[in-house]
Design brief:
Strand order of the largest sheet: 1-2-4-3
Number of helices: 8
Distance between the termini: 22 Å
Radius of gyration: 20 Å
Order of helices and strands: EHHEEEHHHHHH
Strand content: 5-15%
Number of strands: 4
């Protein structure tokens, strides 16, 4: 576990909004940063405890940027890009308090930590679709509950499954990603008849094999 934590820098969104919205958004950003100064260390300790490792040295020296936006009608309360693990987005409303955004903060910080470790510390093996798309959201949603001090039960795990499925579909729908999986499947099944004829395989073995061969929709490495 690390003895220090990365500094979180809260920044107000640069989106074009009315002056009145900008005013409360700036105030909300300052409010969240102030609460984080008090609550943040305990949350970071909980995240490291439940993950089993600390934040990479690169992250501790560089910090993490939290971009605070006004939440639109169809926007989720938070998100981050796996290839940009030094930052994430919070989408808030005028009436929301720390209690409303605390879980979102934990969720996105878990994502940041896992992708930081993968890209900067581990870099072993090729990422796969099911691990990096479905399992990533599934595990993050349940561990979020544990960091917040709640025991994950049937309801929590059920919501985690639903959320992971929704996110997997959303990510898969992004430009070019579906085509990458289709190409991998075409290549896989081109050799399928050969493997079956040689009697060295069967449909159940192939089903297990395809789970581990479908490529991730993410790059294997990124620039730090």
């Amino acid at each position: 576990m690390s003895k220090a934590f990365p500094v979180l820098k809260f920044k107000t969104s640069r989106r074009q909004v009315p002056p009145t919205t900008k005013k409360w958004l700036v105030e909300k950003t300052a409010y969240l940063e102030g609460v984080w100064q008090e609550k943040g260390p305990k949350i970071m300790r909980g995240i490291e405890k439940q993950c089993g490792f600390g934040f990479p040295a690169k992250t501790i020296s560089r910090g993490i940027v939290v971009h605070v936006h006004k939440r639109g009608k169809d926007e989720n309360p938070g998100d981050m890009e796996e290839t940009k693990p030094f930052q994430f987005n919070l989408y808030v409303t005028k009436s929301e308090t720390w209690r409303d955004v605390k879980g979102v903060m934990v969720h996105e910080l878990l994502h940041c930590l896992m992708w930081q470790k993968f890209y900067f510390d581990y870099r072993v093996g090729k990422p796969t679709f099911f691990a990096d798309i479905f399992a990533d959201e599934l595990v993050t949603s349940v561990v979020e509950c544990m960091v917040l001090g709640r025991k994950p039960g049937k309801q929590t795990c059920g919501k985690a499954v639903d959320y992971a499925l929704e996110e997997a579909i959303e990510r898969l729908s992004r430009t070019g990603r579906r085509e990458k999986l289709v190409k991998a499947l075409v290549e896989f099944f081109a050799e399928y008849p050969v493997r079956i004829r040689r009697k060295g395989s069967n449909v159940l073995k192939e089903r297990e094999k395809v789970m581990n061969c479908l490529p991730s929709l993410l790059p294997e490495s990124i620039d730090g």
